[in-house]
Amino acid sequence: MKLNGAQILIDCLKNEGVKHIFGYPGGAVLHIYDALDACTAIDHILVRHEQGAVHAADGYARTSGKCGVALVTSGPGLTNAVTGIATAFTDSIPMVIISGQVSSAVIGNDAFQEVDAVGITRSCVKHNFLVKSADDVAQTVKKAFYIATTGRPGPVLIDITKDATIAKIEYEGYPETISMRSYQPEIQVDEEQVAKAIAIIETAKKPIIYSGGGSVIGNASKALITLTQNTGFPITQTLMGLGAYPATDKQSLGMLGMHGTYESNMAMHDSDCIIAVGARFDDRITGNLEKFCPYAKIIHIDIDPSSVGKVVGVDVSIIGQVNDVLQVLIKGLETKKLPNIDTWWKQINDWRLVDSMAYKTKQGVIKPQTVIETLYEVTGGNAIVTSDVGQHQMWAAQYYPFDKPRRWINSGGLGTMGFGLPAAMGAKIAKPELDVACVTGDGSIQMMLQELSTMLQYDTPVKIINLNNGYLGMVRQWQEFFYDKRYSMSYMDALPDFVKLAESYGHIGIKVEKEADLKPALIEAFKQKNRTVFLDILIDPSENVFPMIPAGAGHHEMLLAGRDDMASTNDEGLNLV
Amino acid sequence: MRHIISLQLENESGALSRVAGLFSARGFNIESLTVAPTNDETLSRMTIVSIGDDDIVEQIVKQLNKLIDVVKVTDLTATEHIERELSLIKIAINNESQSRIETQFDQFDAKIIDVSEEVYTVELAGKSQKINDFINAFNTDEILEVSRTGVTGVCQK
Predict the structure, then answer these.
(1) What is the CATH number of the domain that holds B150?
(2) β-strand A127-131 against A155-161: which pairing, if any?
(3) Contacts of residue B58 in chain A, CB cutoff 8 Å?
(4) How far is CA B12 from the centre of its chain?
(5) Radius of gyration of chain B (CA)
(6) Model ipTM?
(7) Core vs surface per residue A530-544: b (16+ CB within 10 A) or e
(8) Per CATH, domain A2-170 is 3.40.50.970
(9) Substitution target from B66, B70, B72 for chain A, most A beta carbons within 10 A
(10) What is the pLDDT of residues A402-454, one digit of tens each?
């Protein structure tokens, strides 16, 4: 069958099981859009900005576990997409991004809308391809999906020249299998390493499980629950890992790290045996490395050998799919006598009494923490919550206990403001049966506002929870603590009327200024099943995120809310910011 | 410590820049880098000399292994290996220095490959240290130009 490269591309995507593409057309991809028009198996969502396309595909991938797909044109289409690609790369999200490229004959001539897409994206993709011939399309698509979704997942870019989409060739169908000598993601779990880990676990007195994004991305939630419950060990989870283990369970100590709970961080600090599951010892987790977990033997389970020993030296590493490793570990532990850790739990329960998540309510102002708690109550804890980046992100992570994986969608690694809204749209398309809330702030929301228009066109009802404090809150918080309250450029004057703004996009806008109106407004918003509702909630502008490990400090040096000891750091600490 | 890392990678456009980009993006140091196709024309051999602590080199090797185009990574320094470097060196001569300089050529087994009135061009192969020693055997104003390939190497087994 003779097809042009664009038709082959679309056929390949269809055969790969792609149901949704997020994209934006342009000159270099016109043939692809023409072929897409003739394809009924794939829905295309026309975003309003290419960054929105990639974030939406990302939110779709994180929520569904499937590979997200975005399609953009050459030049500015590609450069606009880069932030989204880097966001997905940092959080190991499976995604295939297809970008148009100028014709192969003019590559390198500074042609109209030409950029070196492969060069620009090289350091923020798992792999990328430049396709210059229709003959290479099918193989490349097969490879791209294979690479994106296996091993440690990540975004893969296919840059395809215009002439490759136009040329007609004999198409023999989408390849069924692929094998690459230079890429073999299947890893056999090394049982000897597991035995070494078990030897450490058997003699532990103060063990803790520290679980990260790998438990979510690697679909290891069930195994993680089994391991935790079989051992009776406490578990703490990273920002990226929330939900893999139910937060409301008694063995869960909550999040750890910079804005984690007191009990999590103290338990990490005092622990003699840390079982790191799909976590990468990010600097927001470890704080000051010299003070990090001084007494612990560390067992590190990860798919990526380069994560091991990159930041923190470990005692035993077990490389493999988190789920596979946990199965072997669970089986190995079945016949072993596990340590009695009653004393450890007593210590942990004493730390819990500190109640580090407590906050003071104040007459006449709405506390952001209360907003998130009310959101939890109104949604029964069952919503998908996406967030942007800043204070609101931390409050959402702290006060909405996630009991299931893939319900908490945020840009944890790159910290991309503007992620939340398009990600919520992608999440709603992936899981239309679930409520989706986008927790955002007045700074972040304005970075991707235009997607409100897409959400109307494609009928993706999302509830936007705008924690409006008039500030770039996290910047303001740091300036308050560490820059003598010099609030340089963190105040947002001239905010739009978000209610009118939402209305002008065809959505419902509700302004909430009094605490008494908060819950009724949230109930009303979620009652509007088929509408996007923008809740503009005026919160206490002076509220800070606590508890906090100031940069440069150790886990045992946390600052708690309402204490007199002001946050402080030093130059070395500020370097880590 | 100095490490010689030998890579086999797919002989595809962009593969070299992936490796070079990795070093600059992660702040790893490259002292020299050589690359050419092997007897299997689909594969290139790249030899990189890098200086770093063992844990940094361990990261380098792991990160290189992660590159999709990379088929195999070997830290030659960790095994019995042979390393060689080729250099072309232009040396100024005059009647007075000629015999001293030619003696040095003999001692180092350097091969004269081009002669002009005042300049000898010699070819010298060997371990990098040998080439360093050769260069140091002359006065700095006698060395006119040095072109070195960087190290290439193979495992002995």
Answers:
(1) 3.30.70.1150
(2) parallel
(3) 309
(4) 22
(5) 18
(6) 0.91
(7) eebbbbbbbbbeebb
(8) yes
(9) B66
(10) 999 999 999 999 999 999 999 999 999 999 999 999 999 999 999 999 999 99
